[in-house]
């Protein structure tokens, strides 16, 4: 499930129209529609605002509903006794950030999430 599907689900929950969200973002409705249809990528400067509109974290915009982890077997015998165990969990999101203000907001939110995970 991609970010477009997530946007559709979140919009459905808020009962907002595509036009209403586009207006909140100062965009043409077609631009927002293209995001939901995954025809075009979301400009990074709009990501924090979308999270704010839908009252979710930035990660929630990109995560699938059924959180699945990707596992890779570690073949190195030295790691088998390590606290990591025999599987290495790798999960990630790649966001291309071109706007410095958006980068600051995203960075701050990521730091908060990492701190919460360490608790």
UniProtKB/TrEMBL annotation:
Keywords: DNA-binding. The keyword DNA-binding applies. GO terms for molecular function: DNA binding. SUPFAM superfamilies: lambda repressor-like DNA-binding domains (SSF47413). Residues 7-61 form the HTH cro/C1-type domain. It comes from the Bacteria. It holds the Pfam family HTH_19. InterPro entries: Cro/C1-type_HTH, Lambda_DNA-bd_dom_sf. This is DNA-binding transcriptional regulator, XRE-family HTH domain. The lineage of its organism: Bacteria, Pseudomonadati, Bacteroidota, Flavobacteriia, Flavobacteriales.
